[in-house]
Amino acid sequence: MKVIILGAGGRGNVYAKYFSENGVEIAGLADPNTERLHKVANSNGIPEASLYHSWEEVLEKPKFADAVVNATTDHLHYKSTMKAIERGYHILIEKPISPSENECIEMVEAAERKNLIFAVCHVLRYAPFFEKIKELVENGAVGDILNFQLTENVGYWHFAHSFVRGVFRNEKVSSPMILAKSCHDLDIISYIMNKKCVSVMSDGGLTHFVHANKPEGAPTHCLDGCPHEKSCPYFAPKLYLTQITDVSWPTTAVTTDTSFAGRYAALQTGQYGRCVYQCDNDVADHQSAVFTMEDGSTASFNLIALSSETTRILRIYGTKGDIQGHLDRNQILLSDFNSKKIIDVKYDTVSSLVSGHGGGDARLVEDFIDAVKGDTRSMKTSGRLSLQSHRMAFAAEKSRKTGQRISL
Q1: DSSP type of residue 96
Q2: What is the pLDDT of residues 224-237, one digit of tens each?
Q3: Which segments of the chain belong to CATH 3.30.360.10?
Q4: What phi and psi values does residue 259 have, to the nearest 5 degrees?
Q5: Are 356 and 347 a contacting pair, CB within 8 Å?
Q6: pTM score over 0.90
Q7: Which residue in 123, 295, 316, 374 has a CA-CA distance of 20 to 30 Å to 13?
Q8: Strand 118-120 with 90-93, pairing
């Protein structure tokens, strides 16, 4: 099996690693950033002849692999994916599918017309934690679900990194927060409840990371002598210069030169060195949504940037009992109306234990490889399945901006 990876950023690098570890040849890797392109290539043994500087360059060639992994930026997904489908490639696409609802639908339908696999990287479906909850619900452990409550604690530092300073900070260059970050969560709601959503009401906005909250005397870049460096939790050197060796994410996003000197120079003038109260961010730092399902049951979702934890917590209320869960602790409390039981979630493989998203990254790649080879029995994600969570996100954002209930 051979794959082409479009995009050598954080997620492209992750998928290159897991495909390589599974014995899949990376026949093409494309990215306009030459330094980043070669860094990912060197880490995964990809030869110079397989490197390209744009998705257009690699997809203009006649088909020479089995599948395309699309890890480009959100706004490039549509054109690059439609070209890959035209060439006859199976698709593994990073979420969100597209910032446009119509484009999402068009891509899914185009792949279906050509009978191609179109898998969306909704990796939480593969996390053992959520698999166990799905199993409990399907086995009737809590009866019929009346209400599903899910909270995504983004984490104060994670939000500042990715959604204030980083590539997902602004809708014009990325997507609304509930789509870019939380279509994962809306997909989990759809996956576990297994019901169609019929309407949504949502509220929230950007409140904290705004220019009005800039501390007195704070410069535009932290290294320009900020008087609040000891007290500010977002002081860039504190976040990005403390690692000396074995530099890891999120620090690796600052610059491809991860030496101390390289990082220091990047923070002096680059986007990750900016004061978090003086950026060009516009995505919401808090949002709540209530989704009404076809049978009258409801799901409530809360997205919060300013949290000390970086995790997901949930509670599911049914007619026979309820489930409480904490993703990072890998622990589930199952309570019926007669007893309680604590379930510690176990990982099935070493690769699941060390991979991201609660063990989901590695397991998604493994199942996608099997699917491309003809065995689709274990595939939990598809474009068709993902359309509901994307449409829920689009509707929630429309509701947030208009103050109205939106029907799907």
Answers
A1: S
A2: 999 999 999 999 99
A3: 124-209+282-407
A4: -65, 160
A5: no
A6: yes
A7: 374
A8: parallel
